[in-house]
Amino acid sequence: MADTDFPGWHGTTIIGVKKDGKVVVAGDGQVSLGQTVIKGTARKVRRLSPGGHDVVAGFAGSTADAFTLLERLEAKLEATPGQLQRAAVELAKDWRTDKYLQKLEAMLIVTDGRHLLVITGAGDVLEPEHNIAAIGSGGNFALAAARGLIETDHDAETVARKAMQIAADICVYTNGNLTVEAIEA
């Protein structure tokens, strides 16, 4: 099969919602190859504690690539304890300039409770507008849903869960099997 014929891996919707001093990162469990669901229970949201400082990270993209990036992020956080923004910028710089890392296909949402960031391989470290970040196949659906829900009385976790359910109802590459991690500011 030629590289151009490969159906490609799809899956993953990750959302981060910051509201009332709490940040919630939620991710679905689906990994698809073309039109086939390969796994429905993948865990794409993780809690890291480098240097005793909690960070929650969610990833979309290639799992091996994402784990490589999470390991690099953890090393950056150990070098700069409690400084998520600095560690994220250092990771993005490495990702953008290192020939090996440039080939990695993934995106990250990370938070320490104070900051909510999206890190990309293009060298971006973005603090999202409206305190909502979403990535992955169903990211735009989850983002739109969360933007509609953020002004309600719902807390951050409820907004994230409802947004993920809406994304799962619309995006065939997203399921309702959620991993949810919360962190306080």
Overall shape: globular
Q: Numbering strands along the chain, what is their spatial order in the largest sheet?
A: 6-7-8-9-10
Mean pLDDT across all amino acids: 90
Secondary-structure-derived class: alpha+beta
User: Major sheet: size, sense and barrel closure?
Assistant: 5 strands, antiparallel
Figure out the total of helices: 4
The arrangement of helices and strands along the chain is EEEEEEEHHEEEEHHE
Helix content: 25-40%
Work out the number of β strands. Answer: 12
Task: Based on the model shown, name its key terms.
single chain, 185 residues, alpha+beta, four-stranded antiparallel β-sheet, 4 helices
Task: Please give a structural write-up.
31% of the residues lie in helices and 31% in strands. Strands 6-7-8-9-10 form a five-stranded antiparallel beta sheet. A four-stranded antiparallel beta sheet has the order 11-2-3-12, covered by helices on one side. With 185 residues, the protein is of the alpha+beta class. It is built from four helices and twelve strands; from the N terminus they run E-E-E-E-E-E-E-H-H-E-E-E-E-H-H-E. Strand 8 and strand 9 (116-119) form a beta hairpin. The radius of gyration is 16 Å and the shape is globular. It has helices spanning 63-79, 84-97, 139-149, 156-170, and strands at 9-11, 13-19, 22-27, 31-33, 36-39, 45-48, 55-61, 106-111, 116-119, 125-126, 132-136, 179-184. The longest helix is centred in the middle third of the chain and has 17 residues, at 63-79.
